[in-house]
């Protein structure tokens, strides 16, 4: 919720910090998005190693407290330079959701992983749904800075809830007893699958985030800059969550029955079918309907990846493998906004959707051979 309260309006907030042309605004918006995830990609393996040594709950506490400070500071910046600096520091200390996924994956039976992770995803979806709405109301009523300040308070509440309400049974591991990361990868049953999932996570995140920096600017064009653009942007950004909220547990249960690899492939095919017509939208209503449909695809993708990793990664390496996955996700969050900003500047905002569809096609072609052993195994078992 905190992420989605502020991110759809970041370009509009940057507009208030100086006088920028279209190219400058697109580049600064993409940079402000990307630097957080670049920092996260670099430091995540280090945090993952600490998670395997000391537990995932301490990492959740570290992330929530770090984001309390940095997101609050983003709401107090005097110029765009300081905004980018604090976004870098935010990336260094982030990583809450990744460790929450690892806690749940390690705590439930494998045959229930799809449903459990799908249910956990609804928390993310509810936040994604409500965040832009609340952020739009706050931005319209009290300015863009208020969304950052309220998010800082929410991050501190998350820290307190994690401290007192989240329980993890974990015995610390001495550094010299920790299995080396290279050895962990050698022990994986399907190493090519795990690397395929890493790359798939990167592409999925790049496809998703490529739209985020320009969504409010596109909507401004579609409504001819009339009315409350921030509120409309918040509603459009939240629409996929309406469907994902319902679909995530259902698709999670489906993945337990038919296999998460099939659900993942189906989600990618659906994303391609939806993103192509997005590049031809002429009004907000068309965009809104297509984003509603996109919610079904969103419900299938990342929970299925988490379920596959829970199946084929040993528990004593969850922290590191999930953190590597987070690094690839962060790299997607870096490349996606930058690609989106460049495409929007060279062509137009609608061109970003076509580029996103091409990324999803590439992802689908990559994933099919990586999941072939699992599909063969499922066919033999039948």
UniProtKB/TrEMBL annotation:
Protein name: Drug H(+) antiporter
Keyword Transit peptide among UniProt keywords: no
Major facilitator superfamily (MFS) profile domain ranges (all copies): 1-375
Domain of life: Bacteria
Membrane-spanning ranges: 27-47, 59-78, 116-141, 147-166, 193-219, 231-251, 263-280, 292-314, 352-370
InterPro entries named in the record: MFS, MFS_dom, MFS_trans_sf, Tet-R_TetA/multi-R_MdtG-like
Taxonomic lineage of the native organism: Bacteria, Bacillati, Bacillota, Bacilli, Lactobacillales
Membrane topology recorded in Swiss-Prot or TrEMBL: Multi-pass membrane protein
Any Pfam family matching the protein: MFS_1
GO molecular function: transmembrane transporter activity
Keywords for the protein's UniProt record, in alphabetical order: Cell membrane, Membrane, Transmembrane, Transmembrane helix, Transport
Annotated signal peptide: none
Cellular compartments annotated: Cell membrane
Record GO cellular component, one term: plasma membrane
Database matches in SUPFAM superfamilies: MFS general substrate transporter (SSF103473)
PROSITE patterns from the UniProt entry: MFS
Gene3D superfamilies in the cross-refs: MFS general substrate transporter like domains
């Amino acid at each position: 919720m905190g992420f989605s309260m502020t991110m759809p309006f970041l370009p509009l907030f940057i507009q208030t910090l100086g006088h920028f042309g279209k190219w400058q605004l697109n580049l600064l918006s993409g940079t402000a998005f990307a630097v957080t995830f670049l920092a996260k990609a670099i430091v995540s393996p280090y945090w993952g190693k600490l998670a395997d040594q000391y537990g995932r709950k301490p990492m959740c506490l570290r992330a929530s407290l770090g984001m309390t400070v940095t997101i609050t500071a983003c709401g107090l910046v005097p110029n765009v330079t300081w905004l980018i600096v604090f976004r870098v520091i935010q990336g260094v200390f982030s990583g809450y959701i990744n460790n929450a996924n690892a806690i749940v994956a390690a705590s439930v039976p494998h045959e229930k992983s799809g449903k459990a992770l799908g249910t956990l995803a609804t928390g993310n979806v509810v936040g994604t749904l409500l965040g832009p709405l609340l952020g739009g109301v706050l931005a319209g009523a009290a300015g863009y800075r208020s969304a950052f300040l309220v998010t800082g308070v929410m991050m501190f509440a998350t820290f307190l809830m994690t401290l007192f309400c989240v329980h993890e049974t974990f015995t610390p591991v001495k550094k010299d007893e920790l299995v080396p990361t290279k050895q962990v990868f050698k022990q994986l049953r399907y190493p090519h699958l795990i690397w395929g999932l890493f790359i798939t996570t990167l592409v999925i995140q790049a496809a998703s985030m490529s739209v985020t920096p320009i969504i409010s600017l596109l909507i401004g064009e579609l409504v001819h800059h009339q009315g409350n653009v921030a509120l409309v942007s918040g509603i459009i950004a939240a629409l996929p969550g309406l469907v994902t909220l319902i679909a995530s547990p259902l698709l999670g249960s489906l993945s337990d029955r038919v296999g998460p690899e099939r659900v993942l492939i189906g989600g990618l095919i659906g994303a391609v079918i939806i993103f192509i017509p997005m590049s031809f939208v002429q009004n907000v209503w068309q965009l809104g309907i297509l984003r509603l449909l996109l919610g079904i695809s969103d419900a299938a993708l990342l929970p299925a990846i988490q379920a596959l990793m829970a199946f084929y990664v040993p528990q004593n390496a969850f922290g590191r493998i999930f953190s590597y996955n987070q690094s690839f996700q962060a790299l997607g969050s870096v490349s996606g906004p930058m690609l989106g900003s460049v495409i929007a500047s060279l062509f137009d905002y609608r061109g970003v959707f076509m580029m996103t569809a091409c990324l999803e096609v590439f992802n689908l072609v990559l994933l099919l051979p990586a999941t072939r052993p699992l599909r063969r195994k499922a066919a033999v078992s039948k």
